[in-house]
Amino acid sequence: MLKLYGYLKHTWWQALLSITLLSVRIMADLTLPDYMMRIIDEGIVLSDIDAILRIGGQMLIVAGLVAVLFATNNYIASYLGAKAADRIRRDLFRKIEGFSLVEFDRFSTASLITRSTGDIAQVQQILTMSFRILLAAPITGIGAFIKAVQLTPQLSWIFLIGLPLMLGVVFAIMGLTADRYRQVQKLTDRLNLSARENLTGIRVIRAFNAQRLQHDKFESLNDDVFTNNTSLLRIVSLNEPLITIVMSLTTLTVLWFSADRIGSQAMAIGQMMAFMQYTNQVMSSFMHLSGIFNMIPRAIVSGNRITEVLNTQPTITDPIVESTPDSSLRGRLEFRNVSFRYPEAQEDVLHDISFTAKPGTLTAFIGSTGSGKSTLVNLIPRLYDVSSGEIRLDGIDIRQMNQNSLRQRIGYIPQKGMLLSGSIRDNLTFGNPSAKPETLSKAIQIAQAETFINEREDRLDYRLAQGATNISGGQKQRLSIARALVKNADLVIFDDSFSALDFKTDAALRKALHKELKNATLFVVGQRVSTIMGADQIVVLEQGHVVGIGSHADLLNTCPVYQEIAASQLTAEELA
Fold first, then answer.
1. Full 3-state SS string of 410-476
2. Sign of CA dihedral 138, 139, 140, 145
3. Domains of the chain in sequence order
4. Which of 150, 209, 214, 465 maximizes the CB count within 10 A of its CB?
5. Residue 178 burial (CB < 10 Å; 0-12/13-18/19+)?
6. Distance between CA 275 and CA 435 in Å, rounded?
7. Can you give the pTM of this predicted structure?
8. What is the per-residue pLDDT across 265-311, written as a single tens digit (0 to 9) for each?
């Protein structure tokens, strides 16, 4: 949590100004009881109207100054909190952007969203309140205590009873709420996850008529949040009544013992009123602090959750000194005895994979579900890093290349056609913002997306909804393919990217790819033999092992696994 206060160093002069204004305001505020005492003792008791007007005018000027300083300090405090939150949010987003899939597996998407929004809001609030109350309250309390003791030292013993009682209430409530605040954030993560699943999966939920099931799941989580929050608020709600009781008892004690002193003329009425004002300032300071202290446990939990993300070191990092690829090999990729195991898994999912893909060739991967095809191609752009062995691009290990340099040379089409909200043009130029119109047109033609784009009135300026829900699955895949082609990369990875295409579009697209991408190194993950049978080499995977490498014709003769897959999809004539 303390680390997050370091974000104020960039606004140190505003912080210094805030503290200065705060100090001046408190000093001015502490003089008001003195003015009140003088008005009562010099003006009212002695019936001196001139003294009342003179001292009252001075009091009004000081009160006006206090009000102006209070408003100015609140503005600066709000600015400091908002500015620090802005920097934390930027750093958090930048850190999350640098995460590998390992870190995304560790922190759920719902949790990262909560940490980037709700948790930062909690930290912003405590930073703002630090300059409004957290600093002001103890200074005011100490200052008022000193003034009260100087004014009437005989009654200062009252503080020895009131302050410990108040501190006991504050720390007791803090102790009871700390764990509950931590639980609130965990439950909020789970609630956000449930809400996100319901919103993103609404089509599946409705198709299976499972609204009631999902509603019950959400209600169960919501009830847990409600129960925990209710328990928390019951405890927090005790704070103000208990503090008020302590303040009232302290005030009654002051009145009780002051009455005797006034009766014996050992104390003036104005002196008693000033002492009561100082006592109230001391008690009010602790009441304000108690409110802040009740916020601190939740802010600490939020701060720790944010710091946990900021302190997380990505498992995939750039080398200190980047190696330079051999330009003469331009797009040659080699797997050398590559094995891979997911973090905390008990065994490898890929075992001793070796093959070479040359520029101008197409390498395809096929195998049963769960055989490791997508995992294998995810290693190429370093979405994960190999557990052993190495992947070499143009003669060097890809771990010796900066991630930006590596990924700039890769066009990637994932299994799910993920498009961003915005226009079709925005999505196509996502990896190449300076792409020329002819580049876009060529990529659209290759991806067989020209027809449905031209059917739109706005064509390339047609706006896609969030998740591109206003176009079909096949159209999403074609736009994803076109987006990768616009990048004009040396390596292009199709991770089962033809699954939503009909056979006619699939065939036309593969023909266009073969014709137009003669110099690129292509990788295709496929489920259909017809999609990959024209590949220069086909890598057959079974439970993470390579069980065959070769052309379609070679594998039909030498690889039983491929023979079984082909026999289940092709006719006898096609196999002959």
1. EEEECCCCCCCCEEHHHHHCCCCCCCCHHHHHHHHHHCCCHHHHHHCCCHHHCEECHHHCCCCHHHH
2. positive
3. 2-311 (1.20.1560.10), 333-575 (3.40.50.300)
4. 214
5. middle
6. 76
7. 0.74
8. 777 788 888 888 888 888 888 778 777 777 787 788 888 889 989 98
